[in-house]
Amino acid sequence: MDTRTINNEELEFMRNLTKGTSQLIHFNNAGSSLPPDFVIETIVDYLIEEALGGGYETEANHMDQINGVYDNIAKLINANREEIAIFENASAAWGTAFKGLTFNDGDEIITSEMEYVTNIIGLVDVQKQSGIKVKVIPNDDLGNFSIPELEKAITPNTKLIAVTHVSSSGGSILPIEEIGNIAKTNKILYMVDACQSAGQMPLDVKKIKCDILSATGRKYLRAPRGTGFLFVKKGAQKKMKPILLDFFAASNVSLSGYTLRQDARRFELYEKSRALTLGLGRAVDYAINIGLDRIWYRIRHLSELMRKELAKIPGIVIRDSGENLSGIVTFSVKDLESVDVKTKLAERNINVSVGGAQATPIYMDKNGFSTVVRASVHYYNTEEEISKLCQELKSIIN
């Protein structure tokens, strides 16, 4: 047996640790995964301790565990703990990094047509500055990010390459290692949005050669909502100005000035949920213990199976773009609005989501999609659940 395989005994054990799997079929992992029970227990136990003993007192009692979360995240992406900051979500992490960069007249930023909407808002804002230009690398005829087009787009004015690793509404995976090699060769700052890939597949910031990486906890890491993190390479930290500061990031404060701390936590604010931070740490540790290569192996198996079975159903069209696809499966159902498909499946205790044009606007507009149904698998899903989804879709169509 392939050592990457999660066997049936392991799978049953994992599902028994997740009460939600006994209540419904959850194919909305790209929105928010079902967390393991022990992650929820970690959060609740901490909140109870806070209620009984006081917030600051409880934090002091758990300081080693809280600081250990930075070690867990660093291990997850092969970074150093001094390069990790914890945020409430990926958008806050990405926005803090991006808005902390300085752009000058004539600077150029390169992105892809698969870029996420929140990031595009940031790009639009900076483009309003005089002389700033944003270049979008189009996908090729097969739906793949075009490396040749990227190389052609680079000029001496290219200041930043900012891309989303896994598309929210298209399922495609960008070749972030190849992009990283090009960025390094050309000495261009490189920023990766790993919101959909953290916890779904192995990530190694040293292989990627990125300077900045942002991610959320609630998706494939199976952490609670309200968690995320930011990686900023040690050498890039001084290139970013913190956009908000409090005493956590600054010391020796007087009217004459202050001293910034010398790690990525200079981008954090002090006040955040310690309970959620510990929940994030437990979820990250669990993913590491399972093995990201094993998680990714199963997700690929399940997503390939789902695409194959959906394609057999008359009236369903797979909408995924590109040759390298993730665990996010997108499709349309003939004569039915995506939101209606979602509603009908929810009535049958099956969760999917709707990928709207607003999520990846450049890609969706280019392909003429207003919405797609998005079914995203995780390792705790089963082949039987995929079969059930297909049966219910046939029933809805007929």
Explain what you see.
By secondary structure, the protein is of the alpha/beta class. The chain has 2 domains: 8-34 and 292-397, Alpha-Beta Complex (Aspartate Aminotransferase, domain 1), CATH 3.90.1150; 41-289, Type I PLP-dependent aspartate aminotransferase-like (Major domain) (Aspartate Aminotransferase, domain 2, 3-Layer(aba) Sandwich). Helix content is 40%, strand content 17%. The chain has 14 helices and 15 strands. The chain has helices at residues 8-16, 37-53, 55-61, 63-77, 90-99, 117-127, 147-153, 176-185, 205-208, 274-290, 292-311, 338-346, 361-367, 383-397, and strands at 25-26, 84-87, 108-112, 133-137, 158-164, 189-193, 212-216, 228-232, 250-254, 257-260, 316-318, 328-333, 350-351, 353-356, 371-376. The strands form 4 sheets. Strands 2-8-7-6-5-3-4 form a 7-stranded mixed beta sheet, sandwiched between helices. It has a 4-stranded antiparallel beta sheet with strand order 11-12-15-14. Strands 1-13 form a two-stranded parallel sheet. Strand 9 and strand 10 (257-260) form a beta hairpin. Helix 2 (37-53) runs antiparallel to helix 10 (274-290), helix 4 (63-77) crosses helix 10 (274-290) and helix 11 (292-311) packs parallel to helix 14 (383-397). The longest helix has 20 residues, at 292-311. The chain starts with 7 loop residues before the first helix and ends with a helix.
